[in-house]
Amino acid sequence: MSDRGPSTLFQLPFFRCLVMGRASVAVFALVTGYINSLGPLKKSRAGNADAALTGIARSAFRRFGRFMIPAIVATLISWLACQFGAYNIAHLADSAWIRDSSPIPSTTFAGAFYDLFTSLIKTWVDGGNEYDKIQWTLTYLLKGSMMTYLTLFALIYVKPRWRMLILVGMFLFKWRSGDALVGFNVYCGILLAEVSIDSDVVDFASAHPYIQAVTSASLIILGFLFCSYPEEHPEWARWSRKMEDFGRLIFPEGAEYARFYPGMGADALATGIMFNPTAKTILSHRFLCWMGRLSWPVYLIHAPLLRTVLTWVLFGASVRPPQGKDDQGNQLPPGLLPLAKPWVVMFAVPLFYVFLYRAADLWLRYVDPWCGRATQLFEDLVFRDDAKVEKPLLLS
């Protein structure tokens, strides 16, 4: 697409959501706030605030292991693949994005381990993991988890109505401060968890089904539209230019619209789905729940598999075209590997997704339990004896 030029199918609003990844970070942040706060908020409303605090303390400690150990395993796999040349085809692919994001093997045996150690450290320092660049988000998502636990710690004894008011204030504060990547999405998730268990809100929605249906459907449509906002050159299409103009009215000065719009879209989608019985029924289907359980493994392994398995299929069978000779008559090196024929792409991409989710399912069955056991072993090692076994709760 060019300025004022025609758009392809996946450059149109709504369809863009199928191939864009920025909204996924906002969804992870929102789900972080929702899932991590739902249990403690239920206990607080049931009068078990002390039990809620105990759960928050254990969960906050456990979160580091549940984030870091799977990330280390994923990095190790990508590091081994890199050192054995699995990314060589990616370095020659006629795709700047694939070439630039594929790691290069180390020059020495000792240097390989040094590069591995550096990437493991930089993942949590500045997001600079050379072997799995997608892990730059993990430090932000871990920050979102800690933000959730700290908020719950401060508000667990607060009355529900006041707690909701404070959460709205925190959402607006994060909005105004420009924390679009994690901040206001986390607080939206906590607020949705609070609202979902508030009997007055649930009863009001049930008593006004027409308002509920119209409002929730509108939020879902708006959510997909906001998530469609392009990362670059919004001025090239009329619909995105209108969104850019609207963003100047509602976003704080200096805001990154390509972060704010997906975040706002994720929040609108989640709110609309929560109050839409039909949407909840559809998303509760066994197959979709299975895909949801695989979201974390898919996130960890999709980038290395894309730059190896999918790249091998789409570029590996191609022939590098000759580049001719330079002005001095010297033969130039061959060009980059072109993309495979359209029919190959049409079959390869869907099959890759089947392979990806199968690999993620194996991760969930074998790798994830091992990571959980490793986290539990470390917890048993460092926790006091009276804290290793949770006390029975009066209400749960």
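[next item in queue]
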Amino acid sequence: MAGPDYGALGATLKCVRILQSLSLIAIIGMTANFISMIVSDSQTPPSVLVGTLSVTCIAVIYCIITFILFLDNILPFLITTIIDSLLLVALIVVAVTVGEPLSYLNCQAIGSADDMGSAYDFTMSLGDSIDQNGGQIDYSTWVGMTKPTCLETKSVWGLSIALCVLFAFSSICSVVLWRRKPVAAPKDVEG
């Protein structure tokens, strides 16, 4: 799995892609678990969670494909820079929307996992947080229902912030590699 020799910058891009993929897979697992618990209670999940799952699924597929293209030395660095920047913007939106109700929430004050962490308590709390307008779950209320939900949602928020840094870094690495990659000289057809 050596790939092309782009020096320390190439090795950095590989490490960043691996960290991005691992963080994205962790976010997908936690978000999918939340959506599964909500749907199993016959409710509609908040659009924040659905949007987070959509963005992270697209991003993890992109990371895996670009990692393979990098190893085969056929990665177009300029296009990668543009897409990394677009994913950075999308992940900033995810981090802001997921973190908006979490910034002032103290998960330790909610209660211990022993008295509020059971599936029954989660389902009962979920029923109480249904918004009267169309049966949609209110995300701001939902994140503060149980301590485990709060902690996992804060984990998603933290990983989203870390991904913003990683995608900014991979954008910078890609643009530098694009500028550094030698361009093939045109062939002289007359001589």
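[queue empty]
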